[in-house]
C-alpha cells in the first residue's frame, strides 16, 4: 500500500539567495505535513529550484528539470530561470508549473493543485528555525529580495525585481530562532545589504516589544545581541556603511565587510552604472582601519569590461595595491544574455581579458600571502567546519564559508563541527592558515 502522506522531491540549484528560497519552500512543505523525499522514484512530485544567471547555470537547470521529468514525471519549476520568459516551457513543455524566484506562495499553490494538501498538518514536526540546507552551525539570513540598481552587466533586477525588504521583526525572529537552534554564525545576505529598508523608508518595526528601524546599522546592532557571529555580505560603499565599523570595533558583529567594488576607474564604473560613489574609497578604507584595525575586507572585481583600456586596468591594479584588501574574487567580463553592457562598444578580446585577470590575481596573491604571514604567532578564535583523522578545518572571523580561506588545526582531531576554539597560528600560505589549539 502507498504511504498516505504525499512526498515531494526537491532539487536546489544556484546561489545562497536561491538556497534561502529553497529553505522557505521546504519549511512550508513540512509545516503543511508533506514529506520530503530523497529520491525521484519515491516522490509524488518534484520541485526544481533553478538558477538562470549565466549560460552554464541555465544549462545545468534545464538538465536537472529534464532528469526530474524523466525519473518522476511531475515537476514544478521555480527560481531565476523561471523568470526568464518561456525558456523552461519551451525546453520542457511537460512541466506542471513555472514560477520566478522568491515565490513560496505560488510554488505552494502549484503543489496544492497537483498534490493536494494532507488533511492533518504536522505543524509540531517543524522546528521553529525551519528547514535548512546549510550545515547546522551557520546559516544565511536573507534580509531583502531584488535590487533598485541597474548595473549594466547584471540581469538580477530583471529576474528578481526591485528591492523589497523583509520586515525587520521577521528577520530578527528568524535570526533568534536560528541562534536558539544552535547556529553559531549568521551570514546576512541580499542583493544590496546597505540598501536594506530604503523601499519602506526605513520604517520602524518591532522586535521583542521594542521599536527597531528597518535599516542596516540598526539591524546589525540588534543581530549583535544574539551571541552569534554576524557577517555582512554584499555591502555597497554608501556613506552610512561608516556606521557599522564602530559596531565591528566593539565586537558586536564580525569585523568583516564583503563590499563589491567591481572596478576603480571612474569611467568604467560609470559604464557599469555602479551604485554608490567610489570617490574617496581609499581614504574611507583608511579611516575604517583606524577605527577597527582588525577589519577584513573582501571584494570582487570585473576585468576586461567592454572598453577597458590598459591604462584603466592599471588604475585598478594601483587601487588593489593601495587598498591591500584581504580577499579578492575577480572575473573576466562575460556577456550575460539580456545585460545592457553587451551593447557597449570595444569588447576586450578574451586573451587580453585572461592576461589581465592573471595579472590581477597574481598581485592579489602576493598581497594575501604577506597579510596572512602577519598572522603567524597570533591567537585567533575559529569555528570548526569539518573534522577528520588529520585534524580539523575551521574558519576565523576573516573567512566566510566556501569563498574565503581556512584555518587547519593540526591537533584538532577530537573537535566537533560547530565548536568555537582558540588557536595559535603557526604557518600560512597564499589563502590559508595552520594553527594549534591553545
Ligand atoms: S547592485 Fe548591481 S550587480 Fe548587484 S544585484 Fe543590483 S544591479 Fe545587480
Protein model, in words:
It is a single chain. The chain is of the alpha/beta class and 438 residues long. It is 31% helix and 22% strand. It is built from twelve helices and 20 strands. The protein has a five-stranded parallel β-sheet with strand order 2-1-3-4-5, with helices on both faces. Strand 4 (75-79), helix 3 and strand 5 (97-98) form a beta-alpha-beta unit. Helix 11 packs parallel to helix 12 (350-373). The longest helix has 24 residues, at 350-373. The model is unreliable at 120-124 (pLDDT under 50). Bound molecules: iron/sulfur cluster (SF4). Iron/sulfur cluster binds at residues 147, 149-151, 154, 156-157, 191-192, 275.
> Could you estimate the helical fraction of the residues in percent?
25-40%
Rg value: 23 Å
Mean pLDDT: 90
Q: In terms of per-residue confidence, which ranges show pLDDT below 50 for 5 or more consecutive residues?
A: 120-124
- How many beta-strand runs? 20
Q: What is the terminal separation in angstroms?
A: 58 Å
In short:
With 438 residues, this protein is an alpha/beta fold. It has helices spanning 16-31, 55-71, 87-91, 104-114, 156-160, 168-180, 216-223, 244-249, 266-272, 281-291, 310-323, 350-373, and strands at 7-12, 35-37, 45-50, 75-79, 97-98, 138-142, 144-145, 164-165, 185-189, 204-207, 210-213, 229-232, 256-258, 296-303, 327-332, 379-388, 391-395, 407-409, 420-428, 433-437.
Amino acid at each position: 500500500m502507498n504511504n498516505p502522506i504525499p512526498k515531494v522531491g526537491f532539487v536546489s540549484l544556484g546561489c545562497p539567495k536561491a538556497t534561502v528560497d529553497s529553505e522557505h519552500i521546504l519549511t512550508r512543505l513540512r509545516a503543511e505535513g508533506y514529506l520530503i523525499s530523497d529520491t525521484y522514484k519515491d516522490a509524488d512530485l518534484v520541485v526544481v529550484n533553478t538558477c538562470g544567471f549565466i549560460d552554464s547555470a541555465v544549462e545545468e537547470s534545464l538538465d536537472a528539470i529534464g532528469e526530474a521529468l524523466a525519473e518522476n514525471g511531475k515537476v514544478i519549476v521555480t527560481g531565476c530561470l523561471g523568470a526568464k520568459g518561456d525558456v523552461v516551457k519551451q525546453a520542457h513543455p511537460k512541466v506542471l508549473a513555472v514560477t520566478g524566484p522568491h515565490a513560496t506562495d505560488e510554488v505552494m499553490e502549484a503543489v496544492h493543485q497537483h498534490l493536494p494538501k494532507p488533511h492533518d498538518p504536522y505543524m509540531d514536526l517543524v522546528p521553529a528555525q525551519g528547514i535548512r540546507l546549510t550545515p547546522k552551525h551557520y546559516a544565511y539570513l536573507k534580509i531583502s529580495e531584488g535590487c533598485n540598481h541597474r548595473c549594466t552587466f547584471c540581469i538580477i533586477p530583471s529576474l528578481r525585481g526591485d528591492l523589497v525588504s523583509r520586515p525587520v521583526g521577521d528577520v530578527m525572529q528568524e535570526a533568534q530562532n536560528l541562534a536558539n537552534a544552535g547556529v553559531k554564525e549568521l551570514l546576512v545576505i541580499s542583493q544590496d545589504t546597505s540598501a536594506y529598508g530604503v523601499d519602506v523608508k526605513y520604517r520602524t518595526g518591532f522586535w521583542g516589544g521594542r521599536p527597531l528601524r528597518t535599516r542596516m546599522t540598526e539591524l546589525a546592532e540588534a543581530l549583535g545581541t544574539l551571541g552569534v557571529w554576524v557577517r555582512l555580505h554584499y555591502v555597497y560603499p554608501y556613506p552610512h556603511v561608516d556606521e557599522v565599523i564602530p559596531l565591528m570595533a566593539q565586537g558586536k558583529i564580525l569585523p568583516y565587510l564583503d563590499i563589491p567594488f567591481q572596478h576603480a576607474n571612474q569611467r568604467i564604473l560609470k559604464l557599469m552604472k555602479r551604485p554608490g560613489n567610489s570617490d574617496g574609497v581609499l581614504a574611507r578604507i583608511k579611516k575604517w582601519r583606524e577605527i577597527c584595525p582588525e577589519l577584513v575586507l573582501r571584494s570582487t572585481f570585473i576585468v576586461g569590461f567592454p572598453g577597458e583600456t590598459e591604462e584603466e586596468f592599471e588604475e585598478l591594479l594601483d587601487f588593489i595595491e593601495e587598498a591591500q584588501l584581504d580577499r579578492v574574487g575577480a572575473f573576466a567580463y562575460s556577456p550575460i544574455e539580456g545585460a545592457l553592457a553587451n551593447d557597449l562598444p570595444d569588447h576586450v578580446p578574451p586573451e587580453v581579458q585572461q592576461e589581465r585577470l592573471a595579472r590581477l590575481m597574481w598581485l592579489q596573491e602576493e598581497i594575501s600571502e604577506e597579510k596572512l604571514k602577519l598572522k603567524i604567532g597570533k591567537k585567533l578564535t575559529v569555528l570548526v567546519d569539518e573534522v577528520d583523522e588529520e585534524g580539523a578545518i575551521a574558519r576565523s572571523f576573516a573567512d566566510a564559508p566556501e569563498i574565503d580561506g581556512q584555518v587547519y588545526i593540526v591537533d584538532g582531531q577530537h573537535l566537533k563541527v560547530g565548536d568555537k576554539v582558540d588557536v595559535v597560528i603557526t604557518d600560512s600560505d597564499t589563502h590559508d592558515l595552520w594553527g594549534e589549539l591553545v
